[in-house]
């Protein structure tokens, strides 16, 4: 009998899917991986960070974030904002320059790339002639000065990237007035620094690597003064008075020069080596900021004594009699100073330092120069992340208690507000309070506010103080020794070293209603904690659980367990441990579950699982799941190498068996034998690869390694023995496709502390293909997942339907299977691996609300496969709804780190320090919505004009205006040609098919190279008050459609 599709129903369902599901990658949380460049705009109050992967990220006030990505797979080496504009220029290590702008579109700003440029030298010139090493964004906002490896300086007009060849500064022009004995046989080497005169923008200082510095006049096109340094130059700083210059050098010294007009200046006014006469490392950057009252701030990076402290990453700050060497734990990328007052010319207020693993902001106006806590760009990987756990809709009372505990820990931070406040955050307030908990290698659990765009640190829990470790709990790393020289002070929170790898956190479970927390570690330790608002001194009671249950013939070859402190320990306010379960053997804890209403914790390792009653503080039951043939599980932490070796042996044995078999059957058919051997070898090599694509479903051997490893644990109040009365139960799924169900007999509430809680084995399911079980869910009579413990008691969820029959959903790596309870008879299944080899890696239940109807929504199952694809599956019908590619299938760590939220969002690690947030929900989307307005245009014309009049060149401003007017006809002709060329280019290109534009994480679109996406516009600004029809300037813009 034919089945006819109901087209009307399908169309209605497709429309409903559009209202429920929509995939977006919304924002990246954390610290950019491998930063390589830093920029800052005082007028916009925006911070820019470039990375080695070609990303450019902008940050302003909390919630104001933008991200762009260069097409080229090249590192960003420099970032420069154009003064008082919304444009910035990036330089990549492939020598290309890129122009970006913040353009308003539909009420929010978008970061768009609007142009690119590469210097081209004369025919036959070596690449070093145009290899850019220094960039100066001129204060006029219309020029870029590009210093090169060959010693030349090119002048480029922006934003159109038009080279002004007549204004270029060649190395020959510079050398013409340098004494011959100074030049000698060596060249000047590359341009190391370019600085603008703070009082006269028409003068620039060119610093060459060899040590020469040249004061150049852009109008006269000649050198005014030469400073003949003898040490290799690292950086220069022109002081605000315009008459003094600082230069830092490779020998750890800095020099003070005076602009006198006397040419050449052979000796500096003063030369100092801050850290003694011993050989020192280079001072890579130096600044001197004046103050209204008192001495200036001198700030420089490097300069440490090479032999004693050559491995330190330091920035020294000297003010009056205070001298501090800020000691960072990773390499310094760059730094800048934020200043107070109008046009940011006042006293220095904050020092912003970008190091390789974090951003540190130091308050320069408070006593002791404390660090300002960052609201974003927090290093998630201050200790390596080992697991994560997301909790949605945190009750206000628990939220405030966690906040209060975190404030106690943050007393060493500055009270000053965050100093970078550019842009406006237009994103709506989060509808709920969400927590992200991350477990770390050093035994800490960090609590993050994951409600909005910024992932803000709230509280840090340390489990190390429960155990004996090599670290002293009273050790303070931030304080230097009294009288130490250099005067070091540790700053920053990045600390990649762990005192004991056994402390690493593997599993976390938080009950948001009761305030109970369970964390499990690498050495079989499970801690049960409760939040407390006061400091408490207590002893943690330990219970040792033997998961092998005394089986003979097994010997644990792995790590030893951690030693518990027997004496009382003082715990600060926050989550405080009161019970410890220690598994024997002390293997990695692979699964935990917490039921705070029943006061139970379930735990599992590669050897078995058990249940612990943390109210009576005793163990309830233990089940050993170890396969007698599984020797690998007795050798310690999971080892991928052993399984690869086993696969190699099996593959080559099969090849040998096939060859022997073929020789017996047909010894003369050599060609056919060769062909089959080649095919078998190719299959064997394909099996040896670690790529996530697998074969079709195959039955797995019961002797495979780690079949007894417990993958998931689940508490449920459901029908286990009969359909008339529900009972508390525990469900456990293993790596060998086995599901165990235990019935729990709870005593009455009034006798809970006196009567023993008991557990009985009730059911056991063995999946046919022995695929690992990654998730278990019980559905009530309405087909909805059972609510969380205490959720119904707090009136935050509907009571489960206990009248209809319940169903058990078993999620294995290869399929989803639905069983009726209590008979455990198979009802339906959905295979995921039969064709494309997908294996389920992560699964979670989420509620998807309709974007059109406020009170409609559906519970669905969200699945992530080893292909990096997300699948949304309906419940209880287990039918595929939508699927989206999300993570590269080669990114195994990203897939393994993924965590789902209860409202259709998720996070996964795109690098050791960054979470990518994505959303599958059409209603709940957390993404940055920001607006950056251009600053008020205030050109420094009066200062510039006055400075020009003071120059002894004899050329007045009036004469220059006449000279520019005479060139206006040529400029207009050039504009006309540009317009005609663009018109022809546009007409030809409109006939071609456009390429799709690229989506940015900020919600905007990166302009494609197709001309029908943007139109090249030339704007002319005329001054009609002049008798002469004078063209002031022409600007190249791209009009975004």
From TrEMBL:
Keyword Cell cycle listed: yes
State where it is primarily located: cytoplasm
Where would I find the WD repeats?
431-449
According to the entry, every stretch annotated as the Lethal giant larvae homologue domain falls at: 272-370
GO BP annotations listed:
cortical actin cytoskeleton organization; establishment of spindle orientation; exocytosis; Golgi to plasma membrane transport; hemidesmosome assembly; Kupffer's vesicle development; motile cilium assembly; negative regulation of cell migration
User: For the region Disordered, what residue ranges are annotated?
Assistant: 931-963
PANTHER family linked to this entry: LETHAL 2 GIANT LARVAE PROTEIN, LLGL SCRIBBLE CELL POLARITY COMPLEX COMPONENT 2
> Which family would the database say this protein is a member of?
Belongs to the WD repeat L(2)GL family.
Quote the protein name from its UniProt record. LLGL scribble cell polarity complex component 2
Please give the organism: Astyanax mexicanus (Blind cave fish)
